[in-house]
Amino acid sequence: MKELPPAYIPQDNEDAIYALWEKSGYFNPDNLPGERASVFSVAMPPPNVTGVLHLGHALENALMDTAVRYQRLRGKKTLLVPGTDHAAVATQAKVEKILMGEGIKDPRKDLGREELLRRIREYAEQSKKTILIQIRKMGTSCDWSRLAYTFDEQRSRAVNEIFIKMYRDGLISRGHRVVNWSVKGQSTCSDDELVYVERTAAIYTFKYSKDFPIAIATTRPETKLGDTAVAVHPDDPRYQQYIGKTFTADVGAEQPLAIKIVGDTAVDQAFGTGAVGVTPAHSMVDYEMSLRHGLPLIQVIGMDGKMTEKAGPEYRGLTAEKAREKFVAWLRREELMIKEEESVQNVSTHERFGDVIEVLPMTQWFVNVNKEIPGRGKSLKDLMRESVARTPEAASSNTITITPERFTKTYFQWIDNLHDWCISRQIWWGHRIPVWYCIKCSGEKINWNPELFRDQEGDEMGTIHHGDEHGNLYPDINGIRRMISEGWIINTDLIPIVSEKNPQKCPKCHAEGDIFFQDPDTLDTWFSSGLWTFSTLGYPEKTSDLTTYHPTTWMQMGYEILFFWMARMILMSTYAISELPFRDVYIHGILRDKSGKKFSKSLGTGIDPLKIIETYGTDALRISLIAGITPGNDAKFYEEKVAGARNFVNKLWNISRFILTTTKEPSSPERPTPATLADTWILSRFDATLTEVTNNLEHYEFSYAIEALKSFTWNDFADWYVEIAKIEGSKDAILRYILRQLLILWHPFAPFITEHINSLMQPDKMLMVAAWPENSRGTIPQEGANEFMQIIKIVEETRSIKADYRLAATTIKELIIRTGPEFGKIVRENEAVIQKLAHVSAVTVTQDTAETKTSARKIISAECEIIMPLEGLLDIKKEKEHITEEQSKLKHILLQIEERLSNTDFTRKAPEHVIAAEKERQEEIAQKIKKMDSQMSSLHD
Question: Are residues 186 and 286 in the same domain?
Fold first, then answer.
């Protein structure tokens, strides 16, 4: 073996190794060697093309690739489909922000649809290239020949196919309902896109007029200009006499309000006045109530966030905040205000734009989740319910298992409260809704903003002509298209023609030619992402990939997108192809900094995974990301953790370097026969570790697998067996055998260094397609392994005694081992090991039970005790005094900690991490005191 460098340098190896993997073609399951009957497939959660990968993506890549590499080694036909997400709202918002920073005040208005889309597409493509490079840097063994993008041609076909299918099944429809509206983003959003922020708000209790019989309370008095009812509980004796009556109140709105008193069991009698003003146009809850009681909608806030004509001439054009101030001042002047008080409330904001969400009535596209699917006798909600096992005991081949189990309950709670899904968005970057409108059929139903139309005089709108027999004026088709594309049309109650392409002929009026325009809206990103597991495998075509790899085997994701994505994948897959999207779902937590806070780019606390790789290498990053994580729980990540993982990677290199440079390749690849107890023990320990790691990985317990492997590699193999091999000699076959097997076990976690070391051992074989070791438990006599554990314990306890009495560097002249003849024989056979590893000049084996003066003792087992003579090495009297003094100090500190932890004022005010640290310190000191008691009792004069 040629001279190997003293340290492993990842920067010199990783890119070349990844290039070899790609060149081999083994990322593609079609090229894997041997017969592979079982399949393991994963669809990569596609990162958004909004920039670069962050630590969360690095964690996901590490988890996915670990699972895939393990299953490939297990002989399965493994497929990891790579991909990226066009991330409609996020990407457009990012590019618009960049453009505004460049001086373009209003990118949509100033650039127009086509030019803005060109700019976004350019940005997305560049970002996509960067992300794909980063995925490679993480060592992710995905099949690049199957690379997918949520906005590519294949995925667009799938999106259109599903939209049309759902429309024809009556599950997608266009309707006028209240929706969540972002004024800043000028688009709708779903309930799941809301971020609730705690804010202090004033609660106003007032009456609509002096003769109005009921007082109500609200935090948004400006919306009361659009109230159509007051709801009370039907059993509330205070208000029963008013139920069904209508009262008129002039609050300055366009017309006096006709307020109907309705009885509704949803009202909480004990909250506030027990009565609530109902504003159907600006509240989801109130809208549902209006459907139950047939109440009208009065929209007093517009899409621009300003008050409409319906709010009245005094309020029209004001922002909601200014209107609130004015209306509150009016209530005070009119002596209608009863009470004002402050309260903390959760305000819904848009996750991307950050503005407070307005609820507005609009015409939008919806997926009906409660409607029965033709021919299937169940709704989309039903499909989503029956797809997930409620308990582990209820799991079957027809259900999905969620890990950790507690998220199953959360999933079903979300399903139970699921409303129809608003899927239309008023942004331009995204899948355009495959719906067209015929100008001739639509006629006067086209409704545009006349003020915007007048503002464009002199701007080429197209020729104005008579649109119908009544003489109504309409722009020609080019004018209509422009108005649609630039958002001038504010409501289109038109007749839809659902088609993937521009229709050639109107199915209603049979007119032909250039008379159609496409719906301006795009689809919610999660509509296309919901198709991910099967659209990436060829849908809508019935491909062999779809037959072979779907349902996918496993999916991992953060808990923050449990409903955004997981639920919608289940909805889409079970509806479209009557299959589960995956069998198992692994939910991971969020990575936080060492103090438990979220990483933040704006605060400068973000960590770039590529910079970590440049400094420490990919293997160290992967190990540090996975070690210590548990499903569903957040984990702390910090650079020192990566440094520790880098140290382990170097330890693995040093072990390998020693073995490769001091041993020769055995003539047979078969498992060697043990010659000594040490050989029996290490082979037994390897078998136990193999069993544990295999079981961990089968159950996706990645961190436990790393801990088991690390313990064996660093402790059993490096610290013990390699050192024993130097003493006993003739260990080449076993050292090489275990190293090769160990490389396979480490490969899923640290693929680069293991592949590199393997290339030094077997230049003609690639580790990524090696066979996972077979367990040989039962062929190794466990009795021999247990006996050698006693030898190790003798060495450990000898070292412990020396450390306790600060004699660690001292070679002890004699170690007395008191034991019976049977184990005494084993001790004598391993005397050289004990002497060298415990730094003892001589070992005396005896059955003599007489007391040995001036000595320290430790019991190894019921039949074995070690005695270390301390005469000439230690003053027993002074040592006891020293221990007593140290114990006294520790007991004083322990008392202070216990007093602090019993102080309720401290435990109530102190942060959780401070209390946890105190408890940890308490336990540590208690253990030290206990150990000193043991030391004291072991000392004999």
Answer: yes
> How distant, in Å, are the alpha carbons of 241, 481, 656, 730, 768 from that of 736?
91, 73, 9, 12, 18
Tell me what the mean pLDDT of segment 435-450 comes to: 64
Q: With contact defined as beta carbons under 8 Å apart, do 350 and 193 qualify?
A: yes
The radius of gyration of the chain from alpha carbons, rounded to an integer in Å, stands at 36
pLDDT digits (tens, 9 = 90+) for 720-729: 999 999 999 9
| CATH label of the domain that carries residue 680 | 1.10.730.10
DSSP 8-state symbol, 432 = B
Residue located via tokens 């935090």: 219
Q: Are strands 864-869 and 812-819 parallel, antiparallel or unpaired?
A: antiparallel
Q: At what angle do helices 107-137 and 477-485 cross, to 10 degrees?
A: 60
Same domain, yes or no: 23 and 34: no
pTM more than 0.85: yes
Q: Could you tell me if residue 8 is inside a domain?
A: yes
Range of the domain at 246: 180-362
Query: Is there a contact between 45 and 557 (Cβ–Cβ < 8 Å)?
Result: yes
Gap between the Cα atoms of 452 and 455, Å rounded: 5
Distance CA 389, CA 394 (A): 6
The one-letter amino acid at 616: Y
Q: Same structural domain for residues 76 and 135?
A: yes
Give yes or no: residues 46 and 113 share one domain.
Answer: yes
Asked if the structure places residue 432 within a domain, the reply is: no
From residue 553, give the alpha-carbon distance in Å to each of 30, 64, 567, 581, 840.
17, 12, 16, 8, 56
Q: Is the peptide bond before 404 cis (omega within 30 degrees of 0)?
A: yes
> Quick one: 216 and 354 in the same domain?
yes
Q: Give the number of domains in the chain.
A: 6
d(CA 342, CA 340): 7
Provide CB contacts within 8 A for 398, sequence distance 6+: 580
Integer CA distances (angstroms), 400 to 76, 264, 526, 586, 626, in order:
21, 39, 20, 11, 24
Query: CA 479, CA 469: separation in Å to the nearest integer?
Result: 20
Q: What confidence score (pLDDT) does residue 517 get?
A: 82
Distance between CA atoms of residues 337 and 786, nearest Å: 84
> Which three-class secondary structure state does DSSP give residue 147?
coil
For residue 793, give the CATH number of its domain. Answer: 3.30.2320
258: enclosing H helix or E strand:
strand 257-263
In a domain, 375, yes or no: no
Q: Does residue 218 form part of some domain?
A: yes
The token pair that represents 251 in the structure block: 């609050």
Decide the pairing of beta strands 552-558 and 187-189.
unpaired
Dihedral (CA of 926, 931, 932, 933) sign? positive
Residue among 240, 219, 435, 204 at smallest CA distance from 331: 204
Say yes or no: 155 and 200 in one domain.
no
Q: How far apart are the C-alpha atoms of 710 and 717, rounded to whole Å?
A: 10
pLDDT tens-digit readout, 693-747: 999 999 999 999 999 999 999 999 999 999 999 999 999 999 999 999 999 999 9
